[in-house]
User: Fold this.
Amino acid sequence: METRENIERGMPPEEARRAAQRTFGNVGVTRERIREALPIYWMETLWQDVRYGARLIRRSPMLAAAVVATLTFGIGLNTGIFTLINAELFRSGVKDPDSFVRVHPVYTGDVPPGNPRSGRASREDYLDWREATRTIRDLAAWQSTGGLLDDDDTARVPAFEVSCNYFAVYGTRQPALGRLFLEEECGNHGPQTVTVLSEELWRTRYAADPNIVGKMVQFDRRALAVVGVARRGTGEPMRGGLWIPYSTRVSAGLGPLRVEGRLKPGFSRAAAQAELQVLASRQDRLHPGRTTRMHVTGGAGIEEPGAAPRLFWVLSLVLGALAVVLLLVCVNVSLLMLSQASSRHREIAVRLSLGAGRARLLRMLLTQSLLMAGAAGAASAWMAYWFPSAFLALANLRVDYSLAPDWRVFLYLGVIAMGAGCAAGLAPASESLKTDLTSAIKGHPGHLGMTPWKMRDSLVTAQVALSLLLLAAAGLLAKATYGALTGDPGFEADRVLVAYSPLRFPPYTTASAASFYREFAGRVAVLPGVESVAFATSIRSGDSIELVKSHARLSDPGSQASVNQVSPQFFRTMGIRLIRGRTFTSEEASVAAPITVVSETLGWTQRLRQPVNPLFAAR
Assistant:
């Protein structure tokens, strides 16, 4: 167009063409700029950068191997531990997790016994929800317990007391042997007492007996007929235990229950929560003074009510420590690659003098570290599968839910691999660009834009600082662990022998129980070396959680406290020192007198100067 206009103004064609070219500028540069604006150009240059990075790796195979191994350690350790955290906290570990729901009632006011902080339902509430719900199918209930199997007092066997639709909630329709529970076996008056064994218990205790179905076993002095063997991985994690219909309990009442179910098609967890809230409010009207707030989750630990604040600092501590380790790894890799950066400053100077952009060169140099980080990420993906199982085996632990990585793990892996590649390669790449062009082209080595060794000195300083931080954290952790193992637990721990009773009731609930424990204590007390004998429903934390408040401060919401039923000799036997008041007498224990001994912590929580006598009301 410019040439044509020049010809129209009277120029000869050749002169018009030359004048148009002078006005237009460099045609090759313009053509290149147009090409750079096309999307395919970015892909072409990226492929060039990848090939350049691969050539650099082939030139220094030992350096590349050291970098990949170092990055694999940092990225793999982060990914492996995050896989454990993800399996434990961020997913339910059940089949078809999208339809799975876990119900968490939170009671306030006049709460059912043992429920203030458990998120579990009373039996009455569960039965009402199961009959009235229209959004959840197979609303099941269960609670964990334990006992002695076949009069073997060497170890307690875990057990789940469940409703008959429990297995349907977890997607188990066909057991390994026999059958599952029938609906009539979970009624108030089942025709017989039955049990379903776990596959691990069947293999370890009964040597995988193919004829186990129909045989009788003794569990807590109850005769149970084995009707089936559930496959490994059925239901909640349980190692080597059994399932019992909850109607077979011999105790007076059923304790708080975990409630779970499956959404009906077309309903969401929000809809189920809204419906259950209405049903819970209806139940609250039958119990004046009680308020229930319902939460429906997908079964992940992080979703439980009140779990997020408790887990925030734990996750921050763990992931923060992993981030420090990864940062230290990146510093180490930067130091390794910095030597290579100093050796190619002449090449970079030539590229810069020919007009290459610094941003383009920075991307080209970063590609090498990203390639090695990608190789380390691929190796870390294998560690994500291998590390959790190896860690649990080393700790002698086992879980029945899947530890396989999911999309969260791979997303985390991709983010930290790319971040580690950029962090490790950014310092060497930027250092390569800070080149004195004149000195570098003349072949004078070591003339970088910064003072010699300044970058390396900074990285070494960061490396030492991060190492000291990790060392200090490890020292604090070791000190805390040592203190937990050797510190004063608040009771006598050296000369106390604890034996677990197979009976499922506290010492003074019935006359027969009291008679049994008195006779047992008398026989044990005369044994050589025995100084005193005591009974308790628990040794450390109590067997239930109750809401406790002072009569003097009834307007106060009160405090949650663990409750332990003990015999009068408990404090002497356990070596627990009294600060004020006295302990129980045998007469008070035999008639279940309304008195209590409180801990110093609870006394200060309720601001009581004399925490003795009937100063507490417990619900």
